[in-house]
Give the backbone structure.
Amino acid sequence: MQTRRKTIQQSMVVAGLLASAGFPQFAHAAFNKAGFDAKSVQDAVKAYGGGSIAESKDVTITGPDIAENGAVVPLGASTALTGVKHMLVLVEKNPSALVAMFHVSDAVDANFLTRAKMGQSSDVYAVAIMADGKALFAKKEVKVTLGGCGG
Amino acid sequence: MADPMRIRAQAAGDKATIRVLMSHEMESGQRKDAAGKTVPAWFIQEVTATHNGKPVLSAEWGPAVSKNPFLQFAVKGAKAGDKITVTWKDNKGDTRTDEATVS
Amino acid sequence: MKHSISVLLAAGLMTLSLNGLAQKTASQGIDEYRAMLQDGNPADLFEAKGEALWTQKRGPKNASLEKCDLGKGPGVFKGVFVELPKYFADTGRVQDMESRLLTCMETLQGFNAAEIAKTAFGRGEQVNMTALATWLAAESKGMKFNLSQANQAEKTFYEVGKRLFFQRGGPHDFACASCHAEDGKRIRLQDLPNLTKNPGDGVGFAAWPAYRVSNGQMWGMQQRLNDCYRQQRFPYPSFASDATIALGVYLGVNSQGSASIAPAIKR
């Protein structure tokens, strides 16, 4: 099994290659195994250099109140703040909390929409990790239910 | 090679909204097949995008992203006629790039 | 996970029965969820595939489907979906979209129609069949159903479809009508449209083919009907059989004038 140290070493190698190729903002483009193995929201945030998460009105999480099926739940993470490095989308009660991580370059809005699998009703989080490591979040509850037999 | 993505890129004001549909199983690695064996994880890990050749988006995904993933993001300063490419790479090393013109 | 779902349902049902207001809220919530999924329907991926298959030279005869007559003349694909099923003189049969695609795949491309009909959904040529059906439905999106009942065979098939709709059988003594012959019925949170009359735009017959998010599969009307029979614990009807076509005529004629939203996105 690949040790965490080895993973980080490999990430650094890729990061180094990318940085030297002139894409410094993608210095972390390699898959962050630690982040996606993390069980809790806080651990996933830590894997990307974020500190203790603090709730903030400046971050927005969008999603349905009830999802007819947990296989496809539309979730959006956004913020109007500047100086954001990463936007994370997380489902607290999933086997691993982190769904997706978006680098925020100055060429894109810090506003991402995707669809996630939810194993059960859970709080979902949008976390903005700032350049200084501050981690700001918004959360909401999404109830997951089963529909009927078809149509 | 994997099935093509559907990319829609629409300019409005000072940015373009990009909507992408990708064709991928996004197998979580949590399911068991009829014989009781775990179906191995098979999912898109990295997504990148360029605008007129310049890298603008980089993302890491886990197996919790839904099957046949949908992604929406906005590129600042993109206008009609500009080229957008989107690339994904999965945990088996398979990759796919598709391009669209901003309308 | 099964346990927590049954707990959730039990709790949910209790809440629903105790408070009628909660029911409206849940239903509104589901409507909102469905609306959120409209933009970005994975059916687009199948539609794109179907569009490519139409012009691609394939099969033992290495030919495309571009001369296929789906009811409005060879090669015409726009608007055909909302006029099917209908009678075709060349085969002497009333045919629905998937049945007609089978005819064209055999006569134009040399495929073995019987083999394709026996192939399971989601395998082999059935994958291409579904993609073509999705694309053809998209080429009629928003148009109103306009099935012909001019031909005697079409009229007969309507009556056969109606009989089949109400025919009770299987170990539960179900019929299509058990779920779909009354207003205001639902199974858990799934509304059941009354298909004995026009259920309105984009409902019932007007909503298939559809992408089902629960299993990530694209379903044509043939698969939808097949699964209805499975749910009733009936034997499965054969793919593109007269029985399924007759049901399509009954459902389609009842939907006359309402708009198709296919390919749709469903739970």
Remarks:
- Residues 101 and 113 of chain C are 9 Å apart (CA to CA).
- Chain C touches chain A through 34 residues (CB under 8 Å).
- Chain C has ten helices and seven strands.
- Chain C has two domains: 2-38, 43-266.
